[in-house]
Amino acid sequence: MARSKTSKKWMDEHVNDPYVKKAQADGYRSRASYKLIEINEKDKLFRPGSVVLDLGSAPGGWSQIVAPIVGEAGRVIASDILAMDSIIGVSFIQGDFTEEAVYEQILSTLDNDKADVVVSDMAPNLSGVNTTDQYSSIYLVELALDMARNVLKPGGAFCAKVFQGVGYEEYVKDVRKSFDKVLVRKPAASRPRSREVYVVGKGFKG
């Protein structure tokens, strides 16, 4: 089947992307790993001993970064609708975390503990209709924020990918209600033309 010009352009860009090449060389599952590395270097979200919940974790690029840092004293619980190959030090729960059974599984894996950090690199399946995709992406990050409010320890941190557009400003205001400090990051590994940014909340008010 002939590729459209858009998908060919994307494929060429992807193949020649320095972060894609670097991820392959470094053994990371995703170029997104470098986004979290940069954010954590700036904002110190997690450290040895942290309990981290990774939402929308597949293929595992973020969990790969978190697990070695939190170490044996910490824990990583990852969840995604898609399957994810296992990672040492990561408990993976496959399913939709908004469904009660999956949510309960996450809570039982936390073992009545609270999380220090909730991270989300979730994005919706894109339809190509910008307005629809924007509403879908905002809905997902609202769900991630709800989860963070339910499981974070007071003082905990949150980091979620958000696409700028309809609903974005309101979302940032909503995050500010629950965190002492809110920052917006655009890591170097984010493609310049992408509308994605990462909203970071620190000091969960509980």
Automatic annotation (TrEMBL):
<dbReference type="InterPro" id="IPR015507">
    <property type="entry name" value="rRNA-MeTfrase_E"/>
</dbReference>
<comment type="similarity">
    <text>Belongs to the class I-like SAM-binding methyltransferase superfamily. RNA methyltransferase RlmE family.</text>
</comment>
<feature type="active site" description="Proton acceptor">
    <location>
        <position position="161"/>
    </location>
</feature>
<keyword id="KW-0489">Methyltransferase</keyword>
<feature type="binding site">
    <location>
        <position position="121"/>
    </location>
    <ligand>
        <name>S-adenosyl-L-methionine</name>
    </ligand>
</feature>
<feature type="binding site">
    <location>
        <position position="62"/>
    </location>
    <ligand>
        <name>S-adenosyl-L-methionine</name>
    </ligand>
</feature>
<dbReference type="InterPro" id="IPR002877">
    <property type="entry name" value="RNA_MeTrfase_FtsJ_dom"/>
</dbReference>
<feature type="binding site">
    <location>
        <position position="60"/>
    </location>
    <ligand>
        <name>S-adenosyl-L-methionine</name>
    </ligand>
</feature>
<dbReference type="GO" id="GO:0005737">
    <property type="term" value="C:cytoplasm"/>
</dbReference>
<keyword id="KW-0963">Cytoplasm</keyword>
<feature type="binding site">
    <location>
        <position position="96"/>
    </location>
    <ligand>
        <name>S-adenosyl-L-methionine</name>
    </ligand>
</feature>
<protein>
    <recommendedName>
        <fullName>Ribosomal RNA large subunit methyltransferase E</fullName>
        <ecNumber>2.1.1.166</ecNumber>
    </recommendedName>
</protein>
<dbReference type="Pfam" id="PF01728">
    <property type="entry name" value="FtsJ"/>
</dbReference>
<dbReference type="GO" id="GO:0008650">
    <property type="term" value="F:rRNA (uridine-2'-O-)-methyltransferase activity"/>
</dbReference>
<dbReference type="InterPro" id="IPR029063">
    <property type="entry name" value="SAM-dependent_MTases_sf"/>
</dbReference>
<feature type="binding site">
    <location>
        <position position="80"/>
    </location>
    <ligand>
        <name>S-adenosyl-L-methionine</name>
    </ligand>
</feature>
<keyword id="KW-0808">Transferase</keyword>
<feature type="domain" description="Ribosomal RNA methyltransferase FtsJ">
    <location>
        <begin position="28"/>
        <end position="204"/>
    </location>
</feature>
<comment type="function">
    <text>Specifically methylates the uridine in position 2552 of 23S rRNA at the 2'-O position of the ribose in the fully assembled 50S ribosomal subunit.</text>
</comment>
<keyword id="KW-0949">S-adenosyl-L-methionine</keyword>
<keyword id="KW-0698">rRNA processing</keyword>
<dbReference type="InterPro" id="IPR050082">
    <property type="entry name" value="RNA_methyltr_RlmE"/>
</dbReference>
